[in-house]
Amino acid sequence: MIEARVMSIDHLISPSVQLVVPDDHRPYLWGPKQIQPLWDTISAGASSPSAHKDYFLGSVVLEVDRYESPMRIRLIDGYQRIMTLLVVLCAMRDHMSLIGLPIGDSITSRYLHAESYNAETTYRLVAHQADRPNFTAIIEGDGDVGATGRVADAYKFMRRRLLDACPNLDDFQQAFSWLHGVSAVVREGIVMAALSFDKEAAASLLPFLYQSNPKPFRRLIAEDKAADDVIAFAHRREQVSVFRKYLEDDNCFDRAIARTARKRGEDVWQQFFEKNPWILGASLGGQLLVSWDPSRLEQAVTGSSISGVGKRTDALLRTAGRIRSMVFAEFKTHRTALLDKDVYRSGCWIPSKHVTGGVSQLQGTVHRAVRHIGNLINDHDEEGAAIPGEATYLIRPRSYLIVGQLADLFSGGGGVREDKFVSFELYRRSITEPEIVTFDELLSRAEWMAGISQIP
User: Fold this and answer.
1) pLDDT at 217 (0 to 100)
2) Are residues 215 and 246 in the same domain?
3) Residue 343 in domain
């Protein structure tokens, strides 16, 4: 659960907590332009503590990593601010020694060193790998000895400001007392857990957190073994939404047609299924179907070779299994009429010429492919040699014609025209090669697989 609350610096940089910065984050990048506002606030607070009681340090996002002592917490967002704050404290500690206030060790123990269950020295902040040498040198009191880089520059910047503004003990003590009482807004908790516990809070907070610092989210996803499945599932849902929009929004489909080279509806569906072969593979038959060529559904099936010039089929698939069989598919469009526009006899409707033409076309394609290829085609390795035992068979290969929508069988009032439905069903059930599937039937199967169908 994500919890947002105001937390004092004394609690944020606690002895029992170790803030860890993942190395895939940015190293320390702040310069004088970013540090100066903090210094201005410190100066204002020192001159008038009551008027500057609180200072908004900014949101800091934390994620618990380990609960042993010291508790390890990932610093998801806020590294630049926390590093600057600790550098300021180091500069103040060293300035104390310079002006004769011998309590520098108390700052080190109170703000810089972390409690540990063993004898090793640990720090409150495990800095970015690129910043650790200089940060360690500054904490250990060697920050003025040949240190270079942004962390060392920030330390030197603050030392100069302290020398200029707090030359005596009274001025410095006032500034330090004010800084100690400053508050910071901290968002803490395991960010991704909000999805399970507080969906409304996550919906409003996660986009902001992602936009402000996307790398931690990408890292969390990359480390999640199930992330690929989540991403693939989300992509499939998106593509199913496109599928439905093509069927329901004529303007959308017309714009898609305009983007094709030949300005044909068939080409829109060809491109869509090329991008989403899973819709065909898991929807058409009882067996799982995969693309014969992973890079392309459309293939030449007669000619000099299966990938050469010759008769093409819109989708060439094969069953998945130890023994594989070839499967053919042809696409018309969802706008293709299923039945002729005129009744043939009372109660009898004949299939449209596009349906019967598609059936004849696909039957001819399969027939010529079997005659040209034979009963099987071997798989080949990268050098073109046949792989023993790896082949795809063409024993009465199954084929599918994807055409039209069942809405074509409805009346103008929205009811099913039973005479049309009976005529269409009797026709397609008498045709086993190819099997006829409508676009809306294919969509329903795809929506069910993507988990967005309301059908139980």
Assistant:
1) 57
2) no
3) yes
CB 95 within 8 A of CB 172: yes
Residue 329: give its domain's CATH number.
3.40.91
Give which of 23, 40, 32, 119 is closest to 74, Cα–Cα. 23
- Same domain assignment for residues 140 and 253: no
pLDDT for res 265: 92
pLDDT tens string 98-126: 766 655 566 777 677 776 545 455 788 88
Residues 158-183, mean pLDDT to the nearest whole number? 60
Residue 68: helix, strand or coil by DSSP? coil
Residues 6+ apart with CB under 8 A from 377: 306, 326, 391, 392, 394
pLDDT at 373 over 70: yes
Q: Quickly list DSSP for 252-282.
A: HHHHHHHTSSS--HHHHHHHHHHH-HHHHHH
For the ranges 186-200, 210-224, 296-310, the maximum mean pLDDT occurs at 210-224
Flag whether 454 is in a domain.
no
Same domain, 97 and 200: yes
Question: Which residue reads 């990408």 in tokens?
Answer: 218
Do 295 and 166 belong together in one domain? no
d(CA 319, CA 324): 5
pLDDT in tens, 400-435: 999 999 999 998 888 899 999 999 999 999 988 899
Q: What is the overall mean pLDDT for the chain?
A: 74
> Helices 150-165 and 32-47: crossing angle, nearest 10°?
30
φ/ψ region of 404 (left if φ > 0, alpha if ψ in -120 to 50, else beta) reads: left
147 occurs within a structural domain? yes
Average pLDDT, stretch 11-18? 71
Tokens of 340: 């002729």
Whether residues 207 and 120 share a domain: the answer is: yes
Range(s) of the domain holding residue 25: 3-223
Q: Please report the pLDDT score of residue 198 as a whole number.
A: 37
Both 214 and 299 in one domain: the answer is no
Contact 99, 168 (CB under 8 A): yes
Distance of alpha carbon 360 from alpha carbon 433, whole angstroms: 10
* Nearest of 414, 311, 9 to residue 186 by alpha carbon: 9
The number of domains in the chain is: 2
Of 308 and 14, the structure prediction assigns the larger pLDDT to: 14
